[in-house]
């Protein structure tokens, strides 16, 4: 099961590489089929579409391998964009150009649809391949980057290089860790140990 608790779809995608800021990141998406499974769990594709995409992977492994590599490239670009944004560093122009190209493709295919008496933007249902997955992710990243919410993007401050990206939704904007159960507790224990040593 993949985690979807960063507060934004694009950050959830960026976080599929664990310990992203460490010397030895731990990959969650090892193949095109993993990418499809992530899209399924994210609610971006239906089980029927997932079956079709996996069948395509069996029939055209070279094509889907290229698609997988491209998707990982997009993910890494998204990660660097938001990591640099959080750190106050310049956003790498090649990364922004890559995100822009995918987001523009997504927006070019958006259609106005009626749902419950309201008009919404929606991608068509007849898309093929990883477009089902990458386009909503890229659009989410573009929306987040240009919104006021971008001011609340945080990166886990664990000194080992956790690198987990998230939206700080606390009232006083004080969240520093991916979770208190993991990196937060470790930092708390280190502070306690340091106080004991000083005392």
Q: How is the topology of this model organized?
A:
Layout: H1 9-14, E1 17-18, E2 26-27, H2 32-41, H3 47-59, H4 61-87, H5 93-108, E3 111-115, E4 118-122, H6 131-145, E5 153-155, E6 165-167, H7 180-198
Antiparallel strand pairs: 1-2, 3-4, 5-6
Helix pairs in contact: 2-3, 3-4, 4-5, 4-6, 5-6
Commentary on this structure:
The protein has 199 residues and is mainly alpha-helical. The protein has a single domain (9-198), classed as Jann2411-like domain (Jann2411-like fold), CATH 1.10.3300.10. Helices cover 53% and strands 10% of the residues. It is built from 7 helices and 6 strands. It has helices spanning 9-14, 32-41, 47-59, 61-87, 93-108, 131-145, 180-198; strands at 17-18, 26-27, 111-115, 118-122, 153-155, 165-167. A two-stranded antiparallel sheet has the order 1-2. The chain is globular.
Question: What are the key terms here?
Answer:
199 residues, mainly alpha, Jann2411-like fold, two-stranded antiparallel ribbon, 7 helices, 6 strands, 10% strand, globular
What's the CATH class label?
Mainly Alpha
* Structural class assignment: mainly alpha
CATH architecture descriptor: Orthogonal Bundle
The overall number of domains is 1
From the structure provided, what is the oligomeric state, counting identical versus distinct chains? single chain
CATH fold assignment: Jann2411-like fold
Largest sheet: 2 strands, antiparallel
CATH superfamily: Jann2411-like domain
């Amino acid at each position: 099961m993949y985690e979807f608790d960063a507060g934004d779809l694009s950050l959830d995608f960026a976080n599929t590489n664990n310990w992203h800021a460490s010397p030895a990141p731990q990959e969650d998406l090892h193949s095109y089929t993993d990418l499809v499974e992530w899209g399924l769990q994210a609610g971006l594709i239906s089980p029927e579409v997932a079956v079709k995409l996996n069948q395509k992977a069996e029939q055209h492994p070279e094509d889907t391998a290229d698609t997988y590599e491209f998707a990982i490239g997009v993910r890494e670009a998204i990660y660097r964009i938001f990591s640099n944004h959080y750190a106050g560093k310049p956003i790498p122009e090649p990364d922004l150009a890559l995100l822009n190209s995918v987001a523009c493709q997504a927006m070019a295919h958006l259609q106005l649809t009626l749902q419950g008496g309201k008009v919404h933007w929606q991608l068509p249902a007849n898309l093929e391949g990883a477009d089902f997955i990458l386009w909503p992710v890229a659009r989410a990243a573009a929306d987040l980057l240009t919104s006021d919410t971008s001011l609340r993007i945080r990166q886990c401050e664990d000194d080992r290089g956790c690198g987990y990206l998230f939206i700080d939704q606390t009232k006083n904007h004080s969240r520093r860790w991916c979770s208190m159960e993991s990196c937060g507790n470790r930092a708390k224990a280190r502070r306690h140990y340091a106080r004991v040593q000083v005392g």
